Amino acid sequence: MKRSPPPRPWPAAILASLRGGGLGVAAVAYIGVDYLRHLSQPWHERLQPALWAALAIVAVARVPFYRHWDAEVRSALPFVAAMLFMLAALLFEALSVRFVTAVLGLDWHRNTPPLPDTGQWLLLALNEKLPHTLVEILRARIIGLHHFLMLFMMLAFSVLFDSVKAPGLGLGARYMFTMGIGRLLRAITFVSTILPSARPWCASARYTIPAYPHRWAQKYYVPYASDATSIRQLIHLDMAYERVAAYIDDPRPDWGSMNFLIDFLRPSAFEGSSWYNLLKRAGGGCNDLLYSGHMLVAVLTAMAWTEAYGGFSSAIIWLLVMHSAQREIRERHHYSVDCIVAIYVGILLWKMTGFIWPMKNKSRDRKLDKLEKIQSRLVQAAKDSDMEEVRELLKEVELGGQEKQSSSNSKAMWLFSGATIFSTLTIVLLAFTWTDDG
Q1: Three-class SS of residue 45?
Q2: How much is the pTM?
Q3: Which residues form the Sphingomyelin synthase-like domain (predicted)?
Q4: Residue 267, number of CB atoms within 10 A of its CB
Q5: 190-215: per-residue pLDDT in tens?
Q6: Distances 372 to 360, 376, 407 between C-alpha atoms, Å
Q7: Spatial CA neighbour of 186 closest among 97, 261, 282
Q8: What are the angstrom distances between the C-alpha of 152 and each of 22, 30, 248, 299?
């Protein structure tokens, strides 16, 4: 009769549950508790701090037992480089957002109707056909940009429980590097052709830009914006032939070495003291920005979750991505094309950056090298029916595939681990602060 294995001690049982699905439970709990703000504010105020405290305590308690700090140290430099690249990409994107909003002036935003969007038509038709409860679920603000960022942070921290392959900084470097590439491609895309917003009132509510177009638009766009004869003549001559009687110039504050940005940002007399403060007050663009930045974040989070963790929780994450996409269209933050393009761009970009993380092949190659070295001994032990020797040799192969742990400077390693946890939590707080308005 086969004997059952002895029960594991409770710390091992908890760790096994976290490996087996605890991360998915924590993700669902986080989304559910945060949604309570729309259902019961008192319960939300009680449960959210308790959940954050529990997650933080569990993560910090695992730090002393984490066995892959050497791998984290090797990934620290790529992580910092990826973060700086992403910040530079976000700065370029912010400049581009302001330019496409300001260059044509407020009158263009007020008078240009939204583009026809069949995705919006479909959702309006479904509102008439689907049960009211289902429509309310589709309308519910279940998940937003900061939720997807937090889900990725939970995924990266789960390396402490061996739920995700180490190093966590390597996973973070891949996420930020991919995000930076996606943001650069997005800015280049939407700045190439200026599309009207699905919310025509947006620019008037958010910006204090001039009502008239910039002098570049006065010369190259306005004379040929609507008249078919003028457009035909422009194509024939391939030259801006209309003469502008008098350009309307913008205020020009003194930004020193950054004066070249004035033509791109078009500051008003009330907001011209600093180009940086002007960008901070923007709070998002008021044109259609092809493709959706919100959806890019959502898709990258779902791709990272699927590859690193997998399981049933990945399906839930992808359902939340789809829910977020239809809400972006339903609430007219984006056109359907923006969300569709963001989905396949995010998937393709994540697939292209697999060289950064995970480092699975190195471990496999080390095991194969070790197996090749002991192959003759392993065959001989099998012929001799020496199972003890076979187990010892296989154990050598398994240990040979693991990364070597350094114990030369434990004090420096503890300092690094503390700095890593502190800086990562700081990044989380900054991300929440900077994305609270979308």
Answers
A1: helix
A2: 0.82
A3: 285-352
A4: 24
A5: 999 999 999 988 888 888 888 889 88
A6: 19, 8, 28
A7: 97
A8: 15, 12, 48, 11
